[in-house]
Amino acid sequence: MCNPEKVYWDSSIWIALIKGENINGVDRCETPRLILEDAKAGKVLIYISRITVVEVQKKKNKPELNIVEDNSVQNDFLKHNYIKHIDVDKKVAYLARDLAFTYKLKPCDAIHLASAIKVNAEALHHWDGDFGKVPSNILNCCHPTKWTKQTSIKGDNF
Length: 158
What we know:
Blueprint: E1 5-9, H1 11-19, E2 22-23, E3 26-27, H2 30-40, E4 44-49, H3 52-55, H4 67-77, E5 83-86, H5 90-103, H6 107-118, E6 123-126, E7 146-149
Parallel strand pairs: 1-4, 1-6, 4-5, 6-7
Antiparallel strand pairs: 2-3
């Protein structure tokens, strides 16, 4: 089998899955569910930062997850061999600091971006965030990370 595609998921993807988000007629779960199926089949590796474990607990302007939803995140979403956790080590932290300063990113978005860069992700999937401020040519990797944000249920951008 060929090497699986490496994608990085911002916390907003997980929150959409957990909450079953449908915003302005767009089912934010449809494409991520398909990607999860590909991940289970070994076609995709999904990378997340360890901060995701905490960040999904509360999303800006959204209600906090209840204990059942939080347990679902920990047990059903984040504990699988096709979901790889990236530690916020010294390299990630300093890169995130530089990215935040240079591109005026929120700290967590900078950590997500630095983590995606660290693993040479082929795409960074998100529903929100400041990633549009970052030119894709800043990456020094074989497969430049694409800033992908699903805008329709057709999923062209995923």
